[in-house]
Write a structure and sequence with these properties.
The termini are far apart. 57% of the residues lie in helices and 0% in strands. It is built from eight helices and no strands. The model has no long low-confidence stretch (mean pLDDT 89). It is mostly helical. The radius of gyration is 18 Å and the shape is flat.
Length: 174
């Protein structure tokens, strides 16, 4: 079989050139949901082939990611290496996502405010930067700027992290 697709969003079976079905879409949706919450895809490497190998071999970095606990089992199932271990239908995945949302935000508890989201993103970015994980911190700070484009603190920290990445020779200018 031929391999067609964007490496960051490829299911393992797609990466192997095998026949794919809707469960490859479930996997790709899991990648997108992971990216929405973290600002980065779960698997990325220096080359497209190395990225594909990560999909085939590495477990998704769900546990250490800044993702609501209620969403982690949904992503574990969506990003399962074996299609049979993923959701049987898109409707089943939608139901699991709805359940996760209800668990994360029970009735009477509102979703976080803009200020709370900004605070949480900044705190996680600070934790990642302190651990030397500057690219991940940069991704979260970009999300913080998206949450509040008028936050001088978010812009300053984003600039500082980008400069530190540039000093390390890892780019970081964007």
């Amino acid at each position: 079989g031929m391999i067609v697709g964007t490496p960051e969003y490829m299911s393992p079976e797609q990466a192997r050139g095998e026949k794919v079905d809707f469960r490859s879409d479930v996997y790709a949706l899991g990648v997108v949901i992971f990216e929405i919450f973290t600002g980065q895809v779960p698997f990325r490497a220096e080359t497209p082939i190395a990225t594909i190998f990560k999909h085939l071999q590495d477990p998704p970095p769900i546990e250490e990611a800044a993702i609501p606990e209620a969403l982690k089992p949904v992503l574990r199932k969506a990003l399962a290496k074996t299609p049979a271990d993923r959701y049987a239908t898109a409707a089943e995945m939608v139901g699991a996502l709805q359940d996760a949302r209800r668990e994360a935000f029970p009735a009477g508890h509102a979703a976080p405010t803009k200020d709370e989201r900004l605070r949480d993103l900044m705190a996680e970015a600070d934790r990642l930067a302190a651990a030397g994980r500057l690219a991940e911190a940069q991704a979260l700070l970009r999300r913080a700027v998206d949450v509040d484009p008028h936050s001088p603190v978010a812009f300053r920290r984003l600039f500082e992290v980008a400069a530190a990445l540039a000093d390390r020779g890892e780019g970081g200018a964007g």
